[in-house]
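Troubleshooting log. The previous run stalled partway through. Resubmitting the same two chains, unchanged.
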Amino acid sequence: SYVLTQPPSVSVAPGQTARITCGGNNIGSKSVHWYQQKPGQAPVLVVYDDSDRPSGIPERFSGSNSGNTATLTISRVEAGDEADYYCQVWDSSSDHFNWVFGGGTKLTVL
Amino acid sequence: EVQLVESGGGLVQPGGSLRLSCAASGFTVSSNYMSWVRQAPGKGLEWVSVIYSGGSTYYADSVKGRFTISRDNSKNTLYLQMNSLRAEDTAVYYCARGVRILYYFDYWGQGTLVTVSS
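Second attempt completed without errors. Output:
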């Protein structure tokens, strides 16, 4: 089955840029989606199809995807961005369809 | 406004059963594909099951043969029947609306906690 690998944690100072990676075999050939989850809350979609943003998501959130790594970039990080972030792809390579999530990255704003 | 509201969670003994519900508003459940995604305490997200608009269903290997996803179009509600529950099924269960072609989830419910323990 397809595996997505994320760093457990990323720390960044307010106003700086945070980059959260998501590794997978030839992930550049897949569409990658990113969710933000704050404690006690449901996940919220922040980036879909590698780099598109849903309405209401600040332009500070952007994404890229190439080769074996997808990246979520958060510019001008704010305290309110502190959360867990999950990448997700749809895998149809096995004998059935499967939505695959990365293990999640905890973003800490210093 | 799209809303998803889960219910039915609780404490159940190993081997027991539980049925989760997800009441939808602001859209038609049968016109979209819908999934259940769970999150064990302190852990990440795990996809559990999907039901497509045409009625086809699929399950993660970890729940296949024990869980059944269904919907009631007249009530615009999604269900997850969970049988033969195990301690490792303990999690918050979210229902989520799927987006076609790109296969992501654009709306999530607030989740309902299922605890399997004796």
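Takeaways: Chain A is about 0% helix and 45% strand. Chain A touches chain B at residues 31, 33, 35, 37, 41-45, 48-49, 54, 86, 88, 90, 96-104 (CB under 8 Å).
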